[in-house]
Amino acid sequence: MMPVGQILSDNVRLLRAKATRPAVYGVLIATLAVIIGTVLAAFVSYGSISAENIIKAQSSNVALWVLDLTPFAFALWGQYVSTLMAYEAGSMVMDQTQALRTRTTALEYQAMHDATHDHLTDLPNRILLLDRLEQALHSAQREKRKLAVLLLDLDRFKEINDTLGHYQGDRLLKHVSSRLKHVVREADTLARLGGDEFAVVLHHLATLDDIHTVVTKIRKALAPSYMLDGLNLDVQASIGGALFPDHGTDPDTLLQRADIAMYTAKQEKSGFVLYTPQLDHNSPRRLTLMSELRDAIKNGELSLRFQPMVDSRSNEVPELEVLVRWEHKQHGVMTPDEFIPMAERTGLIYPLTLWVLKHALEQQMEWRKIGLDMGVAVNISAQTLLDPEFPDQVTGLLAAYDVPTERLILEITESSIMFDQELALHILSRFAEMGVRIAIDDFGTGYSSLSYLKKLPVCQLKIDKSFVLDMLSNENDAVIVNATIDLAHNLGLRVVAEGVENAETFERLKSRGCDALQGYYINYPVKGENFPAWYYSAARSGGGANNLASTT
Ligand code: C2E
Ligand code: CA
Ligand code: CA
Fold first, then answer.
1. How far apart are CA 526 and CA 549, in angstroms?
2. b/e map of 171-181 (b: 16 or more CB within 10 Å)?
3. How many other C-beta atoms are found inside a 10 Å radius of the C-beta of residue 421?
4. Is residue 286 part of a domain?
5. Distance in Å, CA 440 to ligand 2 centroid
6. Do 332 and 312 share a domain, yes or no?
7. How far apart are CA 86 and CA 82, in angstroms?
8. Does the residue 298 lie in any domain?
9. Which atom, in ligand 1's list, is nearest to the CA of 378?
10. Residue 227 and residue 97 share a domain
């Protein structure tokens, strides 16, 4: 770069050259004035213009002497002013350049900070985390030290975000990040990877117990309730850990394995899990599955199965439950347990549910054309139910496929309505006004209060299969099943038992007054196009309770 002094003197030269021009004109004009003045003076004083008269006028007229000085005065003055101007302008330019340079540096720093930090919490982001992890791995390798990566994902954050809105969700994330900042040592790195996911790199790990100490501290820090929007919220995190060099020697592998451990912690609800290779069996898939699921919804790689619910008195099939499958190119047909929790975690559950609804209603319309007028029951996750747009989307789809509202049942779980009771009640009332029926799914596995249940516009309870499967051999399960049937009837609700796998269970439930039955004994979930064949053959053989097992 050119030295500042040189730039200044070059500028001065340039500007002086420019400013000197008017001074030169001044000198020329003054010289012209001297000539005209002298000629006129010679003519006025001596009557003619000759060299002799001009010299005479010059030597005798004092006024001309003064006039003679003007070109020199102009020249000097021009020189002086132009130099002054040039210096002033030059240093102004220099000042501005300096100011600009300072601003550019500040902007560059800001841009660098923005690119490497999370806007909401100002914590390092994924880019900076990877950079620091890379460096930390180098020095850990050199010094033969251990290092740990922890991945932390808030439990139920999606629900909170969906229910209370993004503003409150963001506030919660800020609270969480400031609590985390206090428990993570300055030498370690705390980063936000996006959404409700945080990472901690423990750069210096003396013993393995250190990990547990940090995890305990984190969990303790997150334990007290958060006050948001007048609500007391309890939010815990699931944490997964991976160690260098035991579980990986590069950032990607370590983060991936910490993620696998975190996912296991979430599933087991155990709070913290340290990676072991045994966790791998379902996990590498999981990572690619997330992005594949988005495409699968778009490209129609999902398909539906329908499982009849048989009326225990008439043996008719008034409705079927819709169950989604993912026909994965490599992994074959995948059941919902393998991807619904992931869809719920990533927000894909909403488009997925709309896909399911659309195709279920389309199928319903097809059956109606051949004289089968069945109701369809669709499973709805909490996030979907509490989405303010959901009721309108349902209305639109019902109208598009010309399906009467009472032919649609929404199966919702107790936990999804308990999370935000007021909002749930509001949305469910909207559906009830439209004529859409509501069923409480997996009844008995949640903690809904009876008084609240009574307020809800619900028309049926589904006893979870975990109670039904063993009810013949397990006295406790039998008691729960019986109590649920009585409770439902006392509340004026229909009761459906799912997981009916054999004739004895079927008969027992029927004799206890259970209104509808669903399970492999009656039929496996089947493809829509295969349902009419099963239905007519079941009807021919005298009712729905036929084990016409079909796995397609
Ligand atoms: P769920 O709502 O409790 O659905 C009943 C599950 O029990 C189904 O499993 C069904 O195939 C299975 N089942 C039915 N009869 C029997 C039986 O006699 N014995 C046994 N052992 N199982 C039986 P599936 O299809 O794997 O679905 C699992 C869960 O995935 C469902 O549980 C539901 O919670 C969820 N799910 C399925 N489809 C959707 C969907 O479209 N959206 C959402 N949000 N969740 C869905
Ligand atoms: Ca269900
Ligand atoms: Ca269930």
1. 9
2. bbbebbbebbe
3. 14
4. no
5. 9
6. yes
7. 6
8. no
9. 41
10. no
Average pLDDT over residues 295-316: 94
Residue 296 is predicted with a pLDDT of 93
Q: What is the CATH number of the domain that holds 184?
A: 3.30.70.270
Q: Which domain holds residue 250?
A: 126-280
Give yes or no: residues 270 and 137 share one domain.
Answer: yes
Domain shared by 344 and 490, yes or no: yes
Pairing verdict, β 437-443 and 231-233:
unpaired
Tokens of 328: 């994965």
Complete edge-to-edge strand list for the sheet that includes strand 272-274: 189-194, 197-205, 146-154, 237-244, 272-274
H or E segment to which residue 205 belongs: strand 197-205
Shared domain for 102 and 224, answered yes or no, is: no
User: For residue range 363-414, what is the model confidence (pLDDT) as tens digits?
Assistant: 999 999 999 999 999 999 987 998 888 999 999 999 999 999 999 999 998 8
Closest residue CA from atom 8 of ligand 1: 323
- pLDDT at position 497 is 98
Summarize pLDDT for 458-484 with one digit per residue, the tens: 999 999 999 999 999 999 999 999 999
| Residues in contact with ligand 1 (CB, 6 Å cut-off) | 307, 323-324, 335-337, 340, 349, 353, 356, 379, 381, 411, 441-442, 465, 498-501, 518-520, 525
Do 202 and 104 belong to one domain? no
Domain boundary among 116, 147, 175: 116
Atom of ligand 1 nearest to the CA of 441: 2
Lowest-confidence pick of 154-163, 280-289, 463-472: 280-289
Using alpha carbons only, what angle is made at residue 516 by residues 514 and 519, rounded to the nearest 5 degrees? 110
pLDDT value at residue 551: 36
Residues 363, 402 share a domain: yes
Angle of helix 349-369 versus helix 283-299 axis, rounded to 10: 50
3-class DSSP assignment, residue 402: coil
Q: Which atom of ligand 1 lies closest to the CA of 343?
A: 44
Whether residues 182 and 318 fall in one domain = no
Best CA proximity match to 242, nearest among 282, 199, 206, 213: 199
Q: Any idea which ligand is nearest the CA of 382?
A: 1
pLDDT band at 79 (very low <50, low <70, confident <90, very high): confident
The residue behind tokens 């030290």 is 145
Residue with the nearest Cα to atom 46 of ligand 1?
379
Query: Is 291 part of a structural domain of the chain?
Result: no
Helices 62-116 & 4-46, crossing angle to 10 degrees?
A: 160
Pick the closest to residue 244 from 278, 279, 210, 202 (CA basis): 202
Boundary of a domain, candidates 116, 138, 164? 116
- What is the number of other CB atoms lying within 10 angstroms of the CB of residue 118? 19
- Scored b (16 or more CB within 10 A) or e, 242-268 reads bbbeebbeebeebbbbbbbbbbbbbee
Number of domains in the chain: 3
Strand pairing partners for 198? 152, 192
CATH code, domain with 396:
3.20.20.450
CA 117 to chain centre: 16
Closest residue to atom 30 of ligand 1, CA basis: 336
Q: Looking at the domain assignment, is residue 325 inside a domain?
A: yes
